[in-house]
Amino acid sequence: MKTSSKIMLGAVAVVAAAAICYRAVNQAPDASLPLDEQALAIMDDGGCVSCHSANPQLPFYANIPGAKGIIRKDIDKGYAAFDIEPMLTAVREGQAINEVDLAKVEKTVIDGTMPIAKYYLVHWGSSLTCKKSAIMLDWAKQQRAEFYPNTLAAPEFANEPVRPLPDQVDVDAEKAALGQLLYHDTRLSGDGTISCATCHNLATGGVDNLVYSEGIGGQFGGINAPTVYNAYFNFVQFWDGRAANLAAQAAGPPLNPVEMGSASFDEIAERLAADKEFAARFNAVYPEGLNETTITDAIAEFEKTLITPNSAFDRYLKGDQNALTEQEVRGYALFKENKCATCHAGVNMGGLSYELMGQRANYFADRETNVKSGLTDADNGRWAQTGVERDRYRFKTPTLRNIALTWPYYHDGSVKTLNEAVDMMAKYQVGTQLKADETADIVAFLGTLTGEYNGAQLTNSNVAE
């Protein structure tokens, strides 16, 4: 036999042996196990915690010169993108997984992007086979059906990462009526000029369409005012998540010296109590009287009514195939294809997680170069509350509901148009460059997210720049 033939046969034998070995070590979990256990086993085999946790257990070769830097870089990037530990804990305890975490894992499986090749070439049992992928997708579907049942959607959209807004939520009508008055009452401010509605105008998409809002004495804040519409569905309030709920959020601006400038809620309560008619009405609902707890509770109850269902997109998800144009349908497909629906998931299409601003490119370095604005305290994001370095430049994702009405965009209000915002999100968060027609399709889709308030189509009386 010729030498070349022997070499070829030997190579074939080696490849065959490797394939047999690979197949032996990369088996799907026992099908008799519950899906949760199968999913946990696959994620364990995949080494997910090796790059997506705060304190991963590194393999011995992680300290080898040359490999150490590469491995450390992969770990830092992985952890910045996704901390898997809360999700794993929730699965083990039978609790609901954050919808964003679920969407991220599902999209990764669909795209086949994890684990990265350099990992599974060393850890043969880690790569996702077709069978493992099918198990993970079945598991994601089961998780949604159990914890986030999409009862409003048509059957074909029941497993979407986003869901239609409900028509209403449970509200105490008497408290909400008081809250509505307080929301528009300038007596909450120190000089009687500023109300909640000043910066969160219900006639202009729940915002003021300013880069930074103007508060008491002509002062300006340092961060863009988010919309109050659908804020009830956020998992926390404010860009940095410093308020756990709507009542806690309502307690902040009245005492902020730049925003409403009151000295205390005792002072506010005294001003309101001087209005005998209002005080009597308030005390009839809140026998404990006017104080910080009751005032903020009433405002929060009113804000629960600020939901905007029945957008064209909601109607489409519910089964109205004529609710969207062909371009808008393409835009929704591109929205999911480009991972937008991972962070902007759930009924509010956002507001469910903290995400790093500049995942794939340095947003702040580019902004400084282009705008010469420098970094501000507000740019620190969640870090301002936790002091944890991973939280620096990480913000609560904004809702995309009514996004066409709530310019300018981003926490710094630096982006005037949706076209620019979409292009920049693709660059900084996904690492892709959209074509002009793709951007146009996604923007068209985002326009379908404008809903109704009290049965009327939401509009914005301001004129976009």
Concise overview:
This protein is mainly alpha-helical and 465 residues long.
Write the layout of secondary structure elements.
Blueprint: H1 3-25, H2 35-45, H3 48-51, H4 67-81, H5 85-92, H6 99-111, H7 117-120, H8 130-147, H9 173-183, H10 196-199, H11 246-250, H12 265-273, H13 276-285, H14 292-303, H15 312-317, H16 326-337, H17 340-343, E1 354-356, H18 363-371, H19 383-386, E2 394-396, H20 418-430, H21 436-446, E3 452-453, E4 456-457
Antiparallel strand pairs: 1-2, 3-4
Helix pairs in contact: 2-8, 6-8, 9-14, 16-21, 20-21
Name the descriptors.
single chain; 465 residues; mainly alpha; Cytochrome Bc1 Complex, Chain D, domain 2; 3 domains; two-stranded antiparallel ribbon; 21 helices; 2% strand
Write up what this structure looks like:
With 465 residues, the chain is an all-alpha fold. Helix content is 44%, strand content 2%. It has helices at residues 3-25, 35-45, 48-51, 67-81, 85-92, 99-111, 117-120, 130-147, 173-183, 196-199, 246-250, 265-273, 276-285, 292-303, 312-317, 326-337, 340-343, 363-371, 383-386, 418-430, 436-446; strands spanning 354-356, 394-396, 452-453, 456-457. The strands form 2 sheets. Strands 1-2 form a two-stranded antiparallel ribbon. Helix 9 (173-183) crosses helix 14 and helix 20 crosses helix 21 (436-446). The longest helix has 23 residues, at 3-25.
**Gyration radius, in Å:** 26 Å
Instruction: Identify the CATH homologous superfamily of the largest domain.
Output: Cytochrome c-like domain
- Number of contiguous helices: 21
CATH class of the largest domain: Mainly Alpha
For the sheet with most strands, the description reads: 2 strands, antiparallel
Q: Could you say what the CATH topology of the largest domain is called?
A: Cytochrome Bc1 Complex, Chain D, domain 2
The outline comes out as: globular
Percent of residues in helices = 40-55%
End-to-end Cα distance: 79 Å
